[in-house]
Amino acid sequence: MIDKVHSEDLELLGEKIKLGESKKLNLNIAHLFTDTAVEVPVFITRSKIPGPTILITSGIHGDEVNGMEIVREVLTHKINIPARGTIICIPIVNVFGFINKSRYFPDGRDLNREFPGSENGSLASRFAHHFVKEILPLADLCLDFHTGGGERFNAAQIRIEKDNQTAKELAQIFNAPFTLYVSEILGSYRETCSKKNIPILLNESGKSLNLDKLICKEALDGIKRVLSHLKMLDTNFEIPIPNKKSVFVTENHWIRAEHSGFLHTKINIHDYVTKDQTLATLSDPYGSKSHLVKASNDGYIININHAPMVYQGDAIFHITTKTE
Question: Which residues of the chain register pLDDT less than 70?
Fold first, then answer.
């Protein structure tokens, strides 16, 4: 599956890293208006024993701090020290957005729509180009961590292409509560990895500008299981045993608000609900009207809108319609 073994020096950002060495380098291609350099820290840890190279990233969207917390914990707990091979961690890819608590690059673009980038394009496109040219070619497997956008809280999930058998096998090993078959988005990091035949697992956990320790732990357990499968997990760590297998979701849809008002949710993320079960109530602010929001079908709730107020037509629950 991931059977490459690299025994030679690793060349990254103008430096050579030998087997058994660890380094912190900076990816730096742009400056603020003040001419201050904005550096993206890159952590490289190599075992003395040759093996595959795993690239672990988060923060492609600068406000998705739960993904950053997952990679931070990988570094803090030294999960990134491999028994063999190399682990490269980039906790905050979009440092620009992180500084501004924003999803976007300072040029207003979504970095995850600019891959593989252009040497002469926008700031986001140039950054994507540099990343794809300098860092991505080293990877034999990519693990990328995201959250839901805005107030939408995503159940812990892995997203893969349905016809990618390698990704499916790795997703089964990662064993998030849910695995969704989702087509690749044009200009996304995942699409670029696919075109370069680099397997990638994209994790979605939680919502933007929010930390959730429980959902972080689910992702960390998945990382450990994948590293263990590749014989890269240090023997100091126990291999987390999942309580149940990941639910593979083949189809899903959004339940939308039929009325505007305050959203009072009655169920929890990951819950299995039945058709016509009450999921929430929508009330006006004057206490005169209240409307029930009911499940359209039997299925799992894989996203909940945490916004206190919603408009008619807003997506409020993501529910599975078909599973394997």
Answer: 1
Would you call the peptide bond into 52 cis, given omega within 30 degrees of 0 as the criterion? Answer: no
Give the closest residue to 304 by CA, choosing from 257, 243, 251.
257
Cα dist from 134 to 128, 139, 171, whole Å: 10, 11, 27
Pairwise CA distance, residues 181 & 161, whole Å: 5
Residue burial 191-203, b: 16+ Cβ < 10 Å; e: rest:
bbbbeeebbbbbb
Strands (DSSP E) contained in the chain are 10-12, 15-17, 22-27, 40-46, 53-58, 86-90, 141-148, 152-160, 178-181, 200-207, 247-256, 261-265, 272-273, 278-283, 290-294, 299-305, 309-310, 315-323
Q: What is residue 1's predicted lDDT score, i.e. its pLDDT?
A: 65
CB 144 within 8 A of CB 158: no
Going by C-alpha positions, the residue among 285, 291, 288 that lies closest to residue 316 is 291
* CATH for 10-229, options being 3.30.1640.10, 3.40.630.10, 2.60.40.10, 1.10.357.10: 3.40.630.10
Residue 117's pLDDT is 97
End-to-end CA, the chain: 23
The CATH number of 253-323 is: 2.40.50.100
Helices and strands (DSSP H and E) totals, the chain: 6, 18
Percent of the chain with pLDDT over 90: 93
Under the phi-then-psi rule, with left for phi > 0, alpha for psi from -120 to 50, and beta for the rest, what region is 175? left
131's tokens: 């990343």
Of 39, 44, 35, the closest CA to residue 15 belongs to: 44
Angle between the 213-229 and 165-174 helix axes, to the nearest 10 degrees?
A: 120
